[in-house]
Amino acid sequence: MHILFIHDAFPAQFGRLGLELTERYGWRCSYLIQSLSACPTPTRAMLEKLEIHQVPLSQEHRQKGGIPWPQIYGLFLEQCRTVYDVLRTKPELKPDLVVAHGGRGAPTLFLSELFDCPIVIYCEYYFGLNRRDISYRIDLPPAEPAPFFPRSINAPTLATLVEADTGYSATHWQRASFPKRFQHKIEVHFDGIDTTEYQPGPAVRQFGGVSIPEGTRVVTYVARGLESVRGFDIFMKAADRIGRARSDVLFIVVGGEEIHYGWDALHTGRPSFKQWVLEQDKYDLSRFLFLGTILPEQLAQILRLTDLHIYPSVPFVLSWSLLDAMCSGAVVIGSDVPPVREVIEPGVNGLVTPFFDVDQLADTALRVLGDPAAFAPLGRAARRTIEERYSLDVAIPALKDYFERIAAQPARKGVTAPNHPASRRSG
Amino acid sequence: MPPPPLNLLWVEPHFPGRLGAVADWFVRRRGYRCWFYCHTADPPEFWPPSMAKGLNVSVFNVGGVAREPSAPWHRLLERSLCYSYGCWEVLEVNRPKPIDLIIGRSTGLGSSLFAPVYRPGAPVVNFFDYYNQPREFDLADEAGPHTPAAYFHWRRSASAIELLDLENCDLPWTPTTWQRDLFPAEYRADFEVLHDGVDTRLFAPRPRSGPRMIQGRPIPEGARVVTFVAQTLERLRGFDRFWSLANTLLRARSDVLCVVVGESVVRRGLDIDFHQKDYPALLRAQDPIYDTDRFWMLGNKPRMAVAEVLAASDLHIAPSRVYPVARSVLEAMSCGSVVLASDSAPCREVITHEVNGLLLDPNDAGAWSLQALRVLDEPEAFRPLGDAAADLIRERYDQDVTLPRLAELFDRLVEREYRVSRRERETVE
Question: Which fold has domain A206-390?
């Protein structure tokens, strides 16, 4: 079996998946990417065992200041054309299956002109008009594109989905974000947590040049970017309350200052949401350790050390970091929103509080920090949840079966024309 | 008790476009109040009767790439979003109210997409014309090895605005089943298939006797009038086929008069070879008209003038490529003209061969000439086809048959008040 994975970045969602498919089943996995990622970084095994082909960077990736929202579909089409042009010059890349991801639509729109194999789309997310994702933060100053963006941003996703043979989402909630009419062609397959890398156990107590004394309670917050969608401001407010109530707490914050989702720059008029948040209140920054972006092995150490992991997120794509923390046996407080509820059963394998309720978040955190032993069973149950439902050993065989099943089916070659009763190509 | 008159917001890039006649019917027949928002408008002689008598037109401007004469294929959605934004901007300034329902038609320009930002909660009905198939129908059937890959890329990606409109509207509406079936299977069940109807009082058969006139010009007694009507005289509507047939008929019979209505410059982007070109001029250069005195090209004409032409027609020619059946075909049928059309799925939905019209393989020019000459030889023998066509239009396609059904749908949508729109109901709780 030869799978061609297409993704802006490597390894991202597909690197580990391809490595597992290669090592476990001897599959050939090729990649068409734009850049190597730092979040997470590729391992030596990935670079040695997987075929990586780079395409020219799209304008979106070359441009620092962001792309005006009306131009996003045009850039998506340029990327589709680039992928088409590159693959046309690589006849050796003739896959049995194409698996593609794109935050704003996978660039596969023209591939049925080249390949007769099925095309699978990683259906990460479909933006909603309101009450979720980047429209959820009604407490922040309004951003000009707010009413227009969700009405137009899904165009690449829709165009890709119509043409694709099938798709899969990592969680049921992500699948349910798509219009009901398309859900029949989207399956749910999580891509797998490495339960060896993330596991409970003794941890180093030194990070960023700071030694953490025994007896210090560690509270962690992890996000790709410190931004409003991931409730960084909510975390800081709760941390401030927790810190005032207990003098033995250290807050470790992991994540870059880039804004990946939403309109924080428009909300705040600042390029860094983190800086804006820190200017809003008088925080005792001596109680915080901001580590920026770190390597996965460092993250594993931090999550092993933590006494409490706080995950305030609006209803949006679930972060790997939440599952990594649970896999590490951490006690987790997440926001009481559907994607988090899909993983956390409150009082069983974690805790939830309403996203905007800083006081309840702080009170709950203080209860956990006040009696760690009482809450330790939640961390153990969290670990079991990951082992049973989200581990690589569970996810990879299921994905393998899925890919094999789809590859055995004839490609649909674009759904519209062959289905037309008057089409010459209809059956 | 009849429901109270509604207040309707219509959005279409051009007025009266396709929806203008429908809005006009709602004003005249139902007393509804209609605001029509467009980017461009025809001159007043093209306006429907209810203009300024319940139907008010506002023009919106556009910015960005939409201001440029043409946009690269990959920026067409961006252009559409500029139209949509321009419409929203003027709605915000004019603030028409109340609005019970929004009806939009994008024709690839997506102008109704952001209207709900101005009037949230109002149900949205969108009229859909066409969904591009990458390698099939219209002119794609004639693409060859010389056709650039970008042409197919464009075709595969050009319907993005239709997808957004489908997702953002409460009721998709299209005139024919064939058009509905062009859309992705996931959307078809949602569609209301309902023709927007023919004004049968305007497009009515002429009296059996008496002189015929077109644009004030008398038609000689005994002349055989052959007509071709299209928005644009282009390949898509088979104007090249008509041109060739017309020359054959003009040569074969000295009593044939060909009358052509339509704009000469090709506007639709589907024809990449002749886009923005004067297509009749190109045909003329290749194959001059045999007798120009008997070949009347009237240009683009208001509905009244089109009705006069079609009422005078003995044979209406519609040799279209595979594309939605032209409104002029139904109007010709309504006038009782014998229609000779392409034997294609969209035409078959309306015309039954030798029952209410004639259908032939559009690529068999010889068969078209023979069939046309037969009709012109014996108009009386073929008159029953025209009569049956007129009956069909009155029974199934008359505005007064189709639009009351549309009115019922509108009333029902508003009655339900769709406070939580469909997409919001689909939002994950």
Answer: Rossmann fold (3.40.50)
